[in-house]
Design brief:
Length: 298
DNA sequence: AGCACA
């Protein structure tokens, strides 16, 4: 799934209905999806078999689409390749991002990745005539890059243009912070706060629950806005918002823990229209919504 | 940084 080589049709799972945009900058385009998320636990599992790609391959392969529709054997070959000894130096830690609209802004790419642990910089490349753009995001190490990759690959970046992100390890690390000569517009976005409190990314403690607890919502967040976002998740049942006192929080119920886990991984840190600053924080709730004592469903 | 409703 996450490691299926990106093809235009492999990401249809994310159905419509998500309407989110950034509030980190003034007057964001309303039609633009901007998804900021924190490290997802599943990324851990990737570390045992990180995909390897020859660091000596050329950037030229990155003319969109980044990868031709692969034959069925591609995935196997892809992983088999990891068995080959590669130079340990210069570990791949740069992501290649395709599927961006031609009018994508460097700031949008930056916002997409800036909250992931280990984010270092991102570089957008647009060719004035093309309707497609691509970008690179540099991370401190490969695990960080893989975590960000699995969290952003397949995401719908732009609802209007039906832009779906294809994120993969780049063929080689970005060599320099400087623009290369063939660049058109090029912007290098450093993280706003590179050494963020690491505890901000610590996993939350509650045991998995089909209901999610949603915090860090903006004061104007509505239940409908949350429905718009969460209803795109498989197994979604309902949202219950609480904004009587202080900061609003919400509870989102799913049919099972697989669904809530999928949602927590997909929507962690997403910035809503109503968000101020950081995106929403998702945790498993402490108890299931509407669960009566005699009801033994989990 | 906050976990209610039945």
């Amino acid at each position: 799934m996450q490691f299926s080589p990106p093809t235009p049709n492999s990401v249809g799972r994310t159905s419509g209905g998500i309407l989110q945009t950034a509030s980190a900058f003034p007057s964001p385009p309303r039609h633009r999806l901007l998804l900021l998320r924190r490290r997802r636990p599943r990324a851990r599992a990737l570390l045992s078999s990180p995909p390897r790609i020859s660091p000596y391959a050329s950037y030229r392969h990155h003319a969109y689409p980044p990868h031709p529709p692969p034959p069925p054997a591609y995935v196997g070959a892809y992983y088999d390749h990891a068995a080959e000894p590669l130079p340990p130096r210069d570990e791949l830690r740069t992501l290649f991002i395709a599927g961006l609209p031609g009018d994508a802004k460097a700031r949008e790419v930056y916002n997409l990745f800036r909250d992931f642990p280990g984010y270092v910089s991102s570089h957008l490349r647009t060719s004035g005539k093309s309707s497609q753009a691509y970008a690179f995001a540099v991370f401190a190490d490969q695990p960080s890059a893989l975590a960000a990759m699995s969290a952003t690959n397949g995401r719908i970046f732009d609802l209007e243009n039906n832009c779906t992100l294809h994120v993969d390890l780049a063929k080689s690390n970005s060599r320099s912070k400087r623009s290369r000569t063939d660049d058109v517009p090029y912007t290098n976005f450093e993280p706003a706060a590179f050494s963020k409190d690491p505890s901000a990314f610590a996993p939350q403690n509650n045991p998995p629950c089909p209901t999610l607890f949603v915090a860090n919502l903006g004061p104007t967040c509505s239940e409908q806005e949350l429905i718009d976002v969460f209803s795109s998740c498989a197994g979604f049942i309902k949202v219950k918002m609480q904004n009587k006192f202080g900061a609003p929080v919400a509870f989102v119920d799913f049919k099972d823990m697989d669904s809530s886990t999928e949602a927590i991984n997909r929507l962690q840190g997403v910035i809503l229209y109503s968000s101020t600053g950081e995106g929403m924080r998702l945790e498993y709730a402490k108890s299931r919504m509407g669960l009566r004592k005699q009801d033994k469903r989990q």
